[in-house]
Amino acid sequence: MTSDAAEPTALTPGGINAVGRILGLLGDEWTLLIIQQALLGATRYGEFMERLPISNSVLTNRLRALTENGLLDRTVYRSRPVRAEYLITERGRALWPVLLSIWEWERRWVPEQADRLPGMRHTACDSDFAPTLSCQSCGEVVTEKEVTAQWGPSGSWPRSVPEAVTRRRSTGDTSRGQAGLFPETMSVFGNRWAAALLVCAFLGTSRFTDFQAQLGAPPSLLASRLQTFCANGVLCVSRQTGPARTCYQLTEKGRAFFPVIVTALQCGQRWFHAPEGPAVLITHICCGKPLLGLLTCDQCALPLTGDQVSVG
User: Which InterPro entries does UniProt cross-reference here (predicted)?
Assistant: First the structure.
């Protein structure tokens, strides 16, 4: 492993910030699925191959990337022949709130996923549950309407857009079957501009010209992303009077993606540090304190931990 996974990665001054780094990591479905299986106990190459419809070349490349980014730790357990296992690190384990939020959003808001993704059970209260985003300071449930956000010292749109994301699956990658557990999440995270565009919408941007001015994205690409978000119901078009009559508004489905955004931002800023300081500062309006979101059980209101969640 190229870095100590227990310590945050120091980023280059003036370069891609924590937001860009975490969006780049989450922009590949195989990364999410490998981390998911690692959280469920997979450690060896053969176990990942058995559990995922993934080709050898794709798995090898992803395991290497996950090791280089400190999410997995490659440990040799046999020297002749060389055999290694991939143990999930503290940094990799910190992604579980993001995965849990994605799982719930896909299960709740993507019709074809209702039967494909089973429900979740909270073993602490022995109830089927849905995760709820709450403020750690005051304990209140948090929605996007109850927070304010502003750029921190390392924050700006150019620094928050990933340099690149891992190549998406090709037909050859899925020759052993379809993965696609998070198809609409990948419409958000699987494109280097899409996630930044959605964050922009959460911050109140609604007009095409404003999206373009803030993100600096090519107009044709921006139009394509907006069209995708409207097609999958994350955004809707509203007509208003004035010069810029077309506005793009978050739908209920789009607003429900808020826990995914918050948990991803928190994970990014915990594990990737720019020398200038944080990229984004989020305040919970109700208590006036910096938002530290945590997932709680909607049945018993207790904080969730990864080892208390069972699927099926």
Answer: ArsR-like_HTH, HTH_HxlR, WH-like_DNA-bd_sf, WH_DNA-bd_sf
Q: Say if residues 283 and 289 touch (Cβ distance below 8 Å).
A: yes
What residue segments make up the domains of the chain, in order of their start?
9-311
Rounded Cα distance between 103 and 97, Å, is 10
89-116 pLDDT, tens digit each: 999 999 999 999 999 999 999 888 777 7
pLDDT in tens, 254-303: 999 999 999 999 999 999 999 999 999 999 999 999 999 999 999 999 99
Across the chain, the runs of DSSP E, i.e. the strands, are: 9-10, 72-79, 82-88, 120-122, 127-129, 131-135, 147-151, 235-239, 246-250, 272-273, 280-284, 289-290, 293-297, 309-311
Residue matched to tokens 């143990």: 87
The rounded percent of the chain whose pLDDT value lies above 70 is 91
Q: Which pLDDT band holds residue 2 (cuts at 50, 70, 90)?
A: very low
What CATH number is given for 9-311 in this structure? 1.10.10.10
The beta strands (E) that lie in 162-245 are given as 235-239
Yes or no: say if 284 and 147 are a contact pair by the CB < 8 Å rule: yes
* Cα–Cα distance list, 201 to 14, 90, 197, 293 (Å): 24, 31, 6, 20
Please tell me the pTM assigned to this model. Answer: 0.89
For residue 253, the surrounding DSSP H or E stretch is helix 252-255
Q: Which residues contact 214 (CB under 8 A, 6 or more apart)?
A: 157, 200, 205
**Cα–Cα distance, 282 to 269 (Å, whole number):** 12
